[in-house]
Amino acid sequence: MAFAVSGTGLAPKLSPVTFDTEGEPALKPPDGTNAPALLRCYGRVGDARWFGGQDWGVSYGTDTCGDSTATSWPGLDSGLRIVREGSRGSTLVLTVSVRPGLLHLAGFWFGDVAFAGDRREWLLEANGYLYLLDIDRSRLGTLAEGDRFILMTRRYEKAL
User: Fold this and answer.
1) Per-residue pLDDT tens digits for 23-77
2) Is the domain of 1 the same as that of 64?
């Protein structure tokens, strides 16, 4: 499949767009220009949504990379769990939950999780901060105050 889009500059030029077998677009820039071939667009898009009061959005509470899966859940009994699959079944790598009192009414909550790195680092949102967790080295570091992050990966890439 191919079609044309207008190029940048004073005189519009046409560039052919094709799609490979995986549906990835490829754009050849017009000759004589250094314009980027295609700029990808990222955002919080997906099929898991949450709604509450004046706030709403897309939830990324689970991510999988290779044999590892991280899952977080907000609200009452909020927690984080990371599991690795092996030949003998699932192995629990990490579980964290703040569960005070009879009803588990903690002021601490976990949000989105995402794989970031070479299968051992996870980016996670917890209690209004973003953290980087290195499982193999047992390290946790605060990156910034905030929530609802976007990584420049296919997971957050908007479909054209």
Assistant:
1) 776 776 666 766 665 667 777 776 666 666 555 677 888 999 888 899 998 777 7
2) no
What range does the domain containing 20 cover? 1-39
54: which DSSP letter?
T
Q: Are residues 110 and 148 in the same domain?
A: yes
Looking at the 3D structure of the chain, how many domains does it have?
Answer: 2
In a domain, 44, yes or no: no
Sign, Cα dihedral of 85, 86, 88, 93: negative
What digits encode the pLDDT tens for the residues 112-138?
999 886 667 889 999 889 999 998 888
pTM, whole model, 2 decimals?
0.67
Q: In what order do the strands lie in the sheet with 139-145?
A: 110-115, 121-126, 129-134, 139-145
Residues 56, 94, single domain; the answer is yes
In a domain, 19, yes or no: yes
The CA-atom distances, in angstroms, between 50 and each of 45, 131, 138 are: 12, 22, 31
Q: Which of 92, 69, 25 is nearest to 61 (CA)?
A: 69
* Distance (Å, whole) CA 115 – CA 63: 6
Question: What span, in angstroms and rounded, lies between the C-alpha atoms of 133 and 105?
Answer: 25
